[in-house]
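Predict structure. Chain length: 713.
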Amino acid sequence: MTLLKHLTRPFSALFFLASLALPTAAMAQNSPKNTFTTEQVQAELMAHAPDGVDPGKTVWVGLQLQHQPDWHTYWKNSGDSGLATSLSWTLPAGVLAGDIAWPLPVKIPIGNLANYGYKDTVLLPVPLTITPDFKPSVLNPELEIKLQASWLVCKLECVPQDGDFVLRIPVKGSTAIHGAAFDAAFKAQPEALPQAGSVAIENRTLKVSVIGLPASLQGQTLEFFPETPEIIETAAKWKQSWQGAVWTAAVPMAKHRSSDPTVMPLVLVAQLGKEQVGFVTQAKVTGTWPAQAAPSEVAATTPGPPLAPPSNLPSSLWLALLGALLGGMILNLMPCVFPVLAIKVVGFARHSTNQRRQRVGGLAYSAGVVLSFVALGALMLALRGAGEQLGWGFQLQSPGVVAALAVLFTVIGLNLAGLFEFGQFVPSSVAALEAKNPSVDAFLSGILAVVIASPCTAPFMGASLGLALALPATQALAIFATLGLGMALPYLAASWSPALARLLPRPGAWMATFRHAMAFPMFATVVWLLWVLGQQSGINGAASLLALLLSLAWVIWALGLRGRSRLVLATLSMAALAFLAGSIGQNIITPLESNSTTTSTALWQPWAPGKVDQALASGTPVFVDFTAAWCVTCQYNKTTTLASAELLADFAARNVTLLRADWTRRDPTITAALAQLGRNGVPVYVLYQNGRAPVVLSEILSVAEVRSALARL
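Prediction complete.
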């Protein structure tokens, strides 16, 4: 098979790979349990069933969050920012879950804002009602409770987290080992007042009046928590007073309200010695809610830059689209993409006399690239919308995906080297379909190019992709589409411009040599992917994948033989592949014991939440390298600019703390830190200094650029 046929037949390649069905791309699944521990919080699913589990009984379950010092999670109304903890239950038939019985919150001031939430340790109890429809197993009489919980834990930065929990309660007997924790949670519940309070609307102030509070509270200062979010200015100063047994308050209304309620549940909290007591009332609202504040009014009272004049698209979006177009074009020159583009462009030499075919192929290839970028962007936005903390290149944080790509590149490399031809394994009907539809192959080539390009971040891409996450979905997808258009543009231009096509070399024997030479970049990519997998799953995972790839090469070679040799050797090789996949395949997706793949050195220390602030507090500037093993650009900068003796001496002379944030495996804390910088992929290089905004440097880093930034310290 000729060079062009290989390059324009990814359909055959995909068909062949699907027939092999190597079981190494499965995602690792963590076994659920009743505890979950991170650097910020320890979460545990607890139960309280002192009377056993019988129809008509109420069993209490709850998620306990034990926070590290200075970290907090949020109440049902989180205040000016934050997100309430969410609990999703999976229960047997006949068991019904109630709502969270939220304990009393505390106010958490943050600058000119304020949040409502919990510090130290809090238990969020939930009642389970056991109905007569609950039928436990005779052989295993237990109540199995499954919980999927998500919470946002914050300090100076915020980290979204989630966990899956499982707890089994014996149907007969009592379960009261967590009784003290539940008793404390019940004691922290607000007590319902017998009489409803009232809220009167006067201009942009809420006049609150509450009666029925205990006489022991009269004259004391109370804290005020509305359960309805975005109704009051949470951090604003407000007045309160007692008029006999009636407590009153004047609270500023929020400039932007989330609703116009007719009833407002209010929680009032008083401090009695070392204990808090709280009361809840359903306050009736009287008066008419004023119209929402106009944008100009908000701009006049809200810190920050003025609102931009109305236009069809914000100027920042136009800049992001331009950056995406340029970044996509430069992406073709990145090490992971250039071999594919070079092969595709050389394919013009074969069809230089068929201009129509060239143009149709160029359009199909471009469509494959653009639609793949849009699909990848839509998937990332959807997963982030569902609470996942993901960024560009997120798929390569999965060892299974890395292994699958290594298989793909190995097969392509063996084909380029001449070990086999895809036509040997493709049914004649598929081959006929390819011959009739060459544009389908070009389209699939575009998809393959995007798969290969996903680990790379070119200049101008970082800011554009970071902005995409802050825009509406339609505008964000426009950025991804423009990025794909930029990547497809050189090939599209060559397919439609005869002048550019004439600059390409004429067909000849050199094409076979070129084909064989292109096998080596593919094998080099496999070496790199093995190294990436080693960072994720350790030396055992990398060695296991290497053994499977060797066995796969044996299978491909054996299938290309003829006669009895093919039958015998193909059977042996497939048996060996199946045995290795079953015995050592799990090593590929088994993570390292440590969650961090970054090791401390004399110069570089691993990044961790709060570490930048600690260094800045001691008076030293900080340089952070956000990197990943699968990021080709990151590794290039690491071995060139960041390894420069001249630059390292400059860092040492200025006493700069060097931190490395390794994003090789999924890490929500690093994702959140990138989002704060307006980025969602690596590489990102940031220089911090007390009293100044962080300086974000270019993706393709140079010694001169870093030294120039250091000179401004």
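Summary: The two ends are 60 Å apart (CA to CA).
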